[in-house]
Design goal:
By secondary structure, the protein is α/β, with parallel strands linked by helices. It folds into two domains: 99 residues, Leucine Dehydrogenase, chain A, domain 1 (Rossmann fold, 3-Layer(aba) Sandwich); 127 residues, NAD(P)-binding Rossmann-like Domain (Rossmann fold), CATH 3.40.50.720. The chain has a six-stranded mixed beta sheet, sandwiched between helices. It has a six-stranded parallel beta sheet with strand order 9-8-7-10-11-12, sandwiched between helices. Helix 7 links the parallel strand 11 and strand 12. Helix 4 packs across helix 5 and helix 4 crosses helix 8. The longest helix is centred in the last third of the chain and has 16 residues. It starts with 6 loop residues before the first strand and ends with a helix.
């Protein structure tokens, strides 16, 4: 009888006990009857610990990457997909039979697929709250959807608005507001980006990449003004399935 090879997958991040990925893939493996597959969290304090994971974990075939390492992990990888190179952030890693690593970005795919059904003709411009690795994937997806966008961060620069600059005029111009910051994530569910929520209208989409809680303070306040809302759960499912496709694709 042929021995079934074990296949291990995992998530690299910091303070990730809450993680969506471990639960999602563990259930997926069970449903598919893949008893030889397992998924573990690699909770590391510094990205410098990443090479040790690679050298000491047997049968490791693929990984997801989350906050705060989506950008910092790039120098530790052998290759990047075209999309990941353009975006400048990685959330999926494929490990070849020879142990070679290649970074991909499936966040942009997940976000694009989750946002698309919500779009109406008047949704022409977007504001991206935050400037981290996830914001880069969101920007790339908006580019693909031919939606103009600008970033919002704590301090204004030539290229970014500050939260205090967001006013009626800007909200009339930008009809999609996307929170890519971790503000409002469990257990800090009272937190939200500091902006005037009375500026939201029924013409706006409020999209939050946070998925726990289901309705963040950001979404709650936007919805109370009539905005269409969506959390990050669907995006996560889409990006996870895309990661699975990458891991299981036959190596050429």
């Amino acid at each position: 009888m042929k021995k079934v090879k074990k296949r291990k997958f995992g998530l690299v991040g910091k303070n990730i006990s809450y993680s969506f990925s471990k639960k999602y893939f563990t259930e997926k493996f069970e449903n598919l009857g893949l008893n030889n597959h397992s998924y573990v969290n690699f909770d590391i304090d510094t990205i410098e610990a990443f090479p040790t994971i690679l050298s000491e974990t047997k049968n490791l075939k693929g990984m997801n990457v989350t906050i705060p390492y989506k950008e910092a992990i790039i120098p530790f990888l052998g290759k990047l997909s075209k999309n990941a190179a353009v975006i400048g952030a990685v959330n999926t890693i494929r490990i070849s039979k020879k142990g070679e690593t290649k970074g991909y970005n499936t966040d942009f795919y997940g976000f694009k697929k989750a946002l698309k059904p919500m779009l109406k003709k008047h949704h022409q411009k977007a504001l991206i709250l935050g400037t981290g690795g996830a914001s880069k994937a969101v920007a790339y997806a908006l580019q693909k959807l031919k939606i103009e966008y600008d970033f919002v961060s704590r301090n204004a620069t030539e290229c970014e608005y500050s939260y205090s600059e967001l006013n009626d005029t800007l909200f009339n111009e930008y009809q999609i507001i996307i929170n890519t910051t971790p503000l409002g994530t469990f257990p800090n569910i009272q937190d939200c980006p500091e902006l005037d929520y009375s500026l939201f209208t029924d013409k706006h989409i409020a999209f939050d990449l946070v998925y726990n809680p289901e309705e963040t303070e950001f979404l709650k306040r936007a919805r109370s003004q009539g905005a269409k809302i969506k959390n990050g759960y669907e995006m996560l499912v889409f990006q996870a399935e895309k990661a699975w496709d990458i891991w299981t694709e036959k190596q050429k």
